[in-house]
Design brief:
Shape: elongated
Strand order of the largest sheet: 1-2
Radius of gyration: 34 Å
Distance between the termini: 51 Å
Number of strands: 4
C-alpha cells in the first residue's frame, strides 16, 4: 500500500521544526507574562473584567485552501481515532436502501454489467471491458502483497499479462474461465482467514459476468481487511508520534483559522470563574468577619483544567458548541456523560433501597448484585429519545419492592409493610428529578471521586470511593479509568495552548479582580483600591471606631502557584 504523505515526519528536520514551534509558543507565553508584570507595576487598576478576544475578521479563502484545511483536519481526526480507540476498524460502506446514492449506484453498475454481458455474447466475443476488469483485478491483487512476496508477485505478473491477454483475445485463443480460476486461487492465497468462505463460494459460479461481479464484491471486502491490517500495523508507531503529530496539525489549522481557540478560551475562563467563586464562598467567615485571603489561594492551572474537564461531563451538547480541542472526543464525552447519569440514578436507587430495608440486606453481596443488575437492565434504553425516566423508575420501584420482600422472607426477617413499600416507591420515583436530594448527593460524590482520581495522576491504588457509592464502585472505577485516560491524552496534546490561555487571559482577569477589593467589616462595607504594588492598607481613616485595622493581600500569579 502506498505511504501516507500526511504521516508524521520522524526525521531530524521534522523534530527540529516541532521543537521550534514549541519554543515559539513558550516564548509567547513568557512574553505575555512579562507584559502582565509590567501592567501590574504600572499601578493602573482595572475595574472591568478583561474581554475574551474576538474572532478574527472574515476573509476570503480559495477552494484549494479549504480542501487543504479539511484534509488536515480529517487526517488529524483519523490519527486520533486510531490511537484513542483500540477497537477502531474500517467498515465497508453500506448505503441506505432508499437513498438516492444507492439507486444511482445500482443503475450505473447494472448498466456496466449489462454492457459486459452483451460484449461477451457477441460472435466473436469482444473482450475490451473484460480485459480492463482483469487489469483492475491485477492491480488490486498486487496491492495486497508485502515486499517479501516476490514469488506471488511474479506469478500474478506472468499470468495476468495484459499484452499477452490482448493478443490471445485478438487471435480467438483467450480462455476467460482459466483466468478467473487463477484469480480465485490467488485470492484464496492472499485473503484473510475470515474471507475463505466467500472465496470458496466463487468456485460455484459458472457464468462469467456474475462471476466477475462476485469477484469484485469479495475484493472490496479484502481491501477493507487490508486497510484494517495496515491500521493495526501502524498503531504502535503512531502512538509514539501521535502527540506531536496532532499538535502540529492543530497548529497548522490555527494558523489558517486564528479563531480556532475561541470556545476553548471561554470554556477555561468559565472553569476558572467557577473555582474562584467556590473559593470565595468557602472563605466567607461564619459571622461576618473579614475573610482572610491567605486561606483561599488562586487555583493553579492544573486545578482549572481538571475542573474544566469535569464540566464536559455536564455539557449541554444541544445548546452549546463543544470546545475545539476536545471536539474529536465529543462522542466519547457524551457516552461517559450518559454512563455517569445512569450510575447516578442507579446509585441513588440502591442507596434509598438499602436505607429503607433491614440492615442485613445490604450486606448480602448476591442480593445487592442481583438488584443492581435488575435496575441496570431497566435503564438500558436511557439513551433513546423514547425513554421516559419516570415510567422506568415506576417499574423499578415495583420490581425492587418485590425483590426486597422476597429477600426478607428468605432471611426470616420482618416483611415490608404496605406503608413502607409506598414510601420506598415514592422515594425511587423522586430520583427522576435532578433536584432530588439523594440524586444530588450521589452526583456530587461521583464528581468528587473523578476529581480526586484526576488529581492523583492516574496512580494506583485508586482514591477511596466516597460513602454511598459502594454498590456502584466497580462501574464507577471503570468509567473513571476511561475518563482519566481520555483527559490525560488530551492534556499531552493541547496543554501548551491551555497554559497560554490561562496565563494570558485568566491570570490577568484574576489579578484585576484582586486590585479591586470589597472589604466587609461587620455590617459595614467599602470598596478599596490598591495602588501600585502595595501589599497592605490601613483602614484606620475609614473606620476610626474599629481601632487599628489592616488588610494584607499577597497576590500570586497563576504560573507561580
Amino acid at each position: 500500500m502506498s505511504e501516507n504523505p500526511d504521516k508524521p515526519n520522524t526525521n531530524e528536520a521534522g523534530e527540529s521544526k516541532s521543537s521550534d514551534s514549541e519554543q515559539g509558543l513558550e516564548d509567547a507565553v513568557e512574553g505575555s507574562d512579562e507584559a502582565l508584570q509590567k501592567n501590574i507595576k504600572s499601578g493602573s487598576p482595572s475595574t472591568q473584567r478583561m474581554q475574551r478576544p474576538h474572532s478574527s475578521p472574515p476573509r476570503f479563502v480559495t477552494v484549494e485552501e479549504l480542501l487543504d484545511t479539511a484534509k488536515g483536519v480529517a487526517n488529524m481526526a483519523l490519527a486520533h481515532e486510531i490511537v484513542v480507540n483500540g477497537d477502531f476498524r474500517i467498515k465497508p460502506v453500506e448505503l441506505p436502501e432508499d437513498s438516492l446514492e444507492k439507486r444511482v449506484k445500482d443503475i450505473v453498475h447494472k448498466a456496466f454489467w449489462d454492457c459486459l454481458s452483451v460484449q461477451l455474447s457477441e460472435d466473436p466475443p469482444t473482450y475490451d471491458h473484460a480485459i480492463k476488469l482483469v487489469g483492475e483485478i491485477k492491480e488490486t491483487l498486487l496491492s495486497f502483497l508485502l515486499p517479501g512476496h516476490s514469488r506471488l508477485r511474479n506469478q500474478i505478473m506472468e499470468v495476468l499479462d495484459l499484452d499477452l491477454i490482448k493478443q490471445e483475445a485478438e487471435n480467438g485463443a483467450l480462455d476467460i474461465s482459466k483466468l478467473a480460476e487463477f484469480i480465485i486461487g490467488m485470492m484464496g492465497t492472499v485473503c484473510a482467514p475470515a474471507r475463505d468462505e466467500e472465496v470458496k463460494k466463487l468456485k460455484d459460479i459458472k457464468e462469467i459476468v456474475p462471476l466477475f461481479r462476485a469477484i469484485f464484491s469479495v475484493l472490496d471486502l479484502m481491501k477493507v481487511d487490508m486497510a484494517n491490517f495496515a491500521v493495526t500495523s501502524i498503531r504502535p508507531h503512531l502512538m509514539q508520534q501521535s502527540v506531536e503529530y496532532e499538535r502540529k496539525k492543530f497548529q497548522q489549522l490555527l494558523e489558517k483559522q486564528p479563531n480556532s481557540l475561541d470556545f476553548v478560551t471561554q470554556w477555561l475562563e468559565e472553569a476558572a470563574d467557577d473555582l474562584m467563586n467556590q473559593k470565595y464562598k468557602n472563605a466567607l467567615p461564619a459571622e461576618g468577619g473579614a475573610a482572610d485571603s491567605g486561606d483561599s489561594p488562586m487555583p493553579n492551572p492544573v486545578a482549572v483544567q481538571n475542573y474544566a474537564y469535569l464540566k464536559l461531563l455536564k455539557w449541554d451538547h444541544l445548546q452549546r458548541p463543544f470546545p475545539e480541542t476536545v471536539l474529536m472526543d465529543q462522542a466519547r464525552f457524551q457516552e461517559l456523560q450518559l454512563q455517569l447519569e445512569q450510575l447516578t440514578i442507579l446509585g441513588a436507587v440502591l442507596l434509598v433501597t438499602f436505607s429503607m430495608a433491614a440492615p442485613g440486606i445490604s450486606s448480602q453481596a448476591d442480593f445487592a448484585e442481583k438488584l443492581k443488575t435488575i435496575v441496570k437492565i431497566l435503564l438500558t434504553d436511557a439513551h433513546l429519545p423514547s425513554f421516559h425516566l419516570k415510567d422506568a423508575l415506576t417499574t423499578i420501584g415495583e420490581k425492587v419492592c418485590l425483590e426486597v420482600s422476597g429477600c426478607l422472607a428468605l432471611c426470616g426477617l420482618t416483611p415490608f409493610t404496605t406503608e413502607k413499600e409506598t414510601v420506598l416507591k415514592g422515594q425511587i420515583q423522586a430520583v427522576a428529578s435532578p433536584d432530588d436530594p439523594i440524586r444530588r448527593i450521589i452526583d456530587s460524590r461521583i464528581l468528587i471521586f473523578l476529581e480526586s482520581y484526576l488529581a492523583s495522576g492516574h496512580q494506583k491504588p485508586l482514591p477511596t470511593v466516597p460513602g454511598g457509592l459502594g454498590p456502584v464502585q466497580k462501574e464507577l472505577e471503570e468509567v473513571a479509568v476511561k475518563f482519566v485516560r481520555l483527559v490525560n491524552y488530551n492534556k499531552m496534546v493541547f496543554s501548551p495552548y491551555y497554559d497560554a490561555i490561562l496565563i494570558r487571559n485568566v491570570c490577568c482577569v484574576m489579578w484585576s479582580e484582586v486590585i479591586l477589593l470589597k472589604l466587609i467589616l461587620k455590617d459595614k462595607s467599602s470598596v478599596v483600591s490598591l495602588e501600585g504594588n502595595k501589599s497592605s492598607l490601613s483602614l484606620q481613616d475609614m473606620y476610626p471606631s474599629e481601632g487599628k485595622l489592616s488588610f494584607r493581600i499577597e497576590p500570586v500569579l497563576y504560573n507561580a502557584v
